[in-house]
Amino acid sequence: MGLPKLAVIIPCFNEREVIGETLRRVFKVLGELEEKALVSKESYVLVVDDGSKDGTWEVIRGLKSKYGNKLKGIKLRRNFGHQNALLCGMLESEYDVAITMDADLQDPPELMEEMVKLYHGGYEIIYGVRRERDVDSNFKRISASLFYNLMERMGVRIVKNHADFRLVSREVVETLREFKEVNLFLRALFPYLGFKGKELYYRRRERFAGKSKYPITKMVSFALEGITSFSVAPLRLILFSGFVLFLVATLLSLWAVGVKIMGRSIPGWFSIALPLYLLNGINLMAIGIVGEYVGKIYMEVKRRPRYLIEERL
Ligand code: UDP
Ligand code: MG
Questions:
Q1: What pLDDT score was predicted for residue 133?
Q2: Closest-lying ligand 1 atom to the alpha carbon of residue 163
């Protein structure tokens, strides 16, 4: 067997300011990998433009003359989200091994060498894991740690502090292809596939330029997505809290009967109004959670394509 053909897959959403520098650094490392005979000379970089509105695609097209065949591009028709852009890159190109990486240089391209070496050592998935999050804001750090703990509690197997910087072999991707789910949460899906994996630690850098494409709203919905597409624990929680409430109500009835027997009357509006608000709140929340899953089923049965390609480069 010859050397593996490597594809470096980079999803981009409004990354005009960074993509040039990112490609420069990635190609430098790729050149070294080819030189050291770790990957084949046919290796390349694939940029997936996830519906950018800032002219990212034009920049990529402009760089084509500089990098020639080494640079490939896929332009999606609109913004499909990070996960779908990644999926598109992995499913729509040819390679023996792929590395996915953010466009903003927070994941150091220099780590690719270590990843490829581990791949040669027999691992099929290499997870890039952030060792320190010192460059992230306090808020991001705390919310991330909350999220990973919650996921763990709900029984989702997930690699802590691993984002989407990872190496996967062809076989892994072909297995992933069988998973047709529309609600895609790759971080938990890869460990689920059961391949021999390895964690590789690194220090996450600061974004090279531009702003994060994950505002708080997107982060919350991403977290919800992660939990609801991998676990039905929230549904069980409803059942459980219903049971607890039932117990409490039973005790309260006993108390009410006792008070009645003793010939006193049950104190005021409080005993009526408070449970009314409380229980209604809980009820709505429960319906909301069930609704979240119903919505998921709705999206899944539609089986809409997860991405639409407008142009290839
Ligand atoms: N991204 C994307 N589609 C989106 C949002 C983000 O392809 O809808 C890409 C983005 O261009 C970047 C990567 O996903 O390459 C990670 O995004 P970002 O760096 O903004 O997230 P953060 O590091 O702040 O979590
Ligand atoms: Mg980033």
A1: 67
A2: 25
The reported pTM is 0.87
Distance CA 80, CA 82 (A): 7
88 residue type, one letter? C
CA 208 / ligand 2 centre spacing (Å): 9
Q: Which two tokens stand for residue 93?
A: 């190109």
Low-confidence ranges of the chain (pLDDT < 70): 1, 133-135, 267, 269-270
DSSP line for 27-54? HHHHHHHHHTTSS-TT-EEEEEE-S-SS
H/E stretch holding 98 reads: strand 97-100
Block residue for tokens 């089923």: 297
Ligand nearest to the CA of 102: 1
- DSSP H helical segments within 48-197, as ranges? 56-67, 82-91, 112-120, 138-153, 170-177, 186-193
Q: Strand pairing of 6-12 and 162-169?
A: unpaired
- The 10s digit of each residue's pLDDT in 217-232 is 888 888 888 888 888 8
pLDDT of residue 308: 96
Question: Is beta strand 71-76 parallel, antiparallel or unpaired with respect to 309-312?
Answer: antiparallel
Residue 37 structure tokens = 């005979």
Residue ranges lining ligand 1, Cβ < 6 Å: 11-13, 15, 50, 79, 81-82, 85, 102-104, 106, 212-214
Q: What is the pLDDT of residue 122?
A: 93
